[in-house]
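Intended use. Records like the one below are meant for learning the mapping from a protein sequence to its folded structure. Do not use them to infer anything beyond what is encoded.
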Amino acid sequence: YAYRGPMTVTISDNEIANGSDGIYCRSDVDSSSQKGDITALISGNEIHHNSGRGIRCYAHQYYSKIYPEIRANRIYSNGGDGISCGMDSVPSSYGLRMTPVITLNTVIDNAGRGIFCRATAAADIFYN
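Structure written out for the chain above:
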C-alpha cells in the first residue's frame, strides 16, 4: 500500500495472496499541498486469491498524480478486477493524472474485469 507522496515505489518478485486488494497504490493530496506524485513499478509478482482486486492504482483527488508501470505479473483467482487503474471524477483542470503502462502480464480467472483502466491520457496497454 503506497499512499500520498511524492514517492517512488518498486514492488517486485513477491507472492501476494489471501488479502483484500493484493497491491494498492493510491495518490491522495489536499488541494493546497500538490505533492501527491507516485511513480510505481510493479513487476514479477504472483498475485492470487485476494478478496478484492489483484492490483489497484488510484489517483484520489485534485492534484494527485500516479504513474504506474505494471509489468510481467501473474494475476489470477482474485475476487475483483485483475488490474484496476482509476481516478476520481474531478475536472482535469485540477491536475489529476493517471498514466499507466500495463504490459506482459498474465491476467486470468479473476471475478471482475481482467484489466480496467480509466486514464487521463492514452494508456499503454499491450501484450497482456
